[in-house]
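User: Second chain of the day. Same drill as before.
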Amino acid sequence: MTEEGKGPLQLDLQAILRRRAPGAMRFVPRWVVRRLERTIRQEELNGILRRTYPKRGSSFARAALHDLGISLEVRGLENIPEEGRFVFASNHPLGGLDGISLISILGELYGDRNVYFLVNDLLMNVEPLTDVFLPINKYGSQGRKAAAAINDAYAGEAQILIFPAGLVSRLQGKEIKDLAWHKAFVAKALQSGRDIIPLRFEGSNSMKFYRRARLRKRLGIRINLEQAMLPAELVGARGSSYRVVFGRPVSAAMLRESHMPPQVIADRIKEWVYTPDLLTGTFKL
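Assistant: Same format as last time:
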């Protein structure tokens, strides 16, 4: 990306790849990088960055949604208590617009300084959102720093937003659902005394995305090749409408008293997110 203070920041895939894999990039032809730039629709993404400059955080998120003509129906805000420290745990159907939408909603509710969104460290390249991003990095000294920052965030007063699946939803049978949710958000909520607010983002990517993911799996390819399609999915969603549903808080005290393993609780909260009763029902173990 271009340097801050010199106009709108722009995605530069070649520069990003050089930073992350400098050795390997010496052997990658320029035409391959250009093909990847077209695949992720880099120019269109940079157009959004230019048109939304110099907005940051949730203001940027709202401007990006407006630029794309995205409309949101938000239900269940009355389920969020006026006071409290929460972990907002959401399914992850889109891989971009779902996160931007939730930053917009929670930023408006709490202010950007009071929201942390736990993300893959690669997303730190989306510079206008780095004020609310908290990177998850599991390796080396950076991993230790990230773990300490995450612990500090859970111990603090800001709200936490997370996609516990980590990866984007996949087509499973005839349904588009998350893969398994990781237990860390439950363990951290219990440790920090935070109630969990489950929420559902209703939407999907193109069938091309799911077919490519299924083909990759059938071929036994472990590298997540379809991930490269997600920026294009974001741009291709122009003019779409989505619904966000917030459920009632899941009490940390109730979870602690259940003595159930965090992974079991995570699995059950994930299934609760997909139920029709999420808006008005009460989660039970």
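The CA atoms of residues 136 and 164 lie 12 Å apart.

User: Great, on to the next one.
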